[in-house]
Amino acid sequence: MSGTPDRVPxxxxxxxxxxxxxxRIEGTTLVTLVGLAVPLKYLAGLPQGVSAMGPIHGIxxxxxxxxxxxxxASGGWKPLEVLRTAVLTIVPFGxxxxxxxxxxxxxxxxxxxxxxx
Length: 117
What we know:
Blueprint: H1 15-44, H2 48-73, H3 79-87, H4 94-97, H5 99-112
Helix pairs in contact: 1-2, 1-5
């Protein structure tokens, strides 16, 4: 048996799957904004990167929060889990550090879901 047993494939079909996808997109836009666009603005005098990435990241952040709201509204979340997932999105690389938790959460939610005939 290879891999971890609690790994659940990422899919648009479930609220937690949509959250995991939104998390990766939001994390990528944040790292790009903070790690590339902002330094280019202040060190090289090129504000175009921030002008382009700022709105993209803003939209990704809003989509992430909506996905988090949908996932938590579907049930099975403790308040501290919601807080952790929300706070880590404002930390560069935070969404990527949170991925193992979201993967375990997806597995736990999938295990308690009723099976389809």
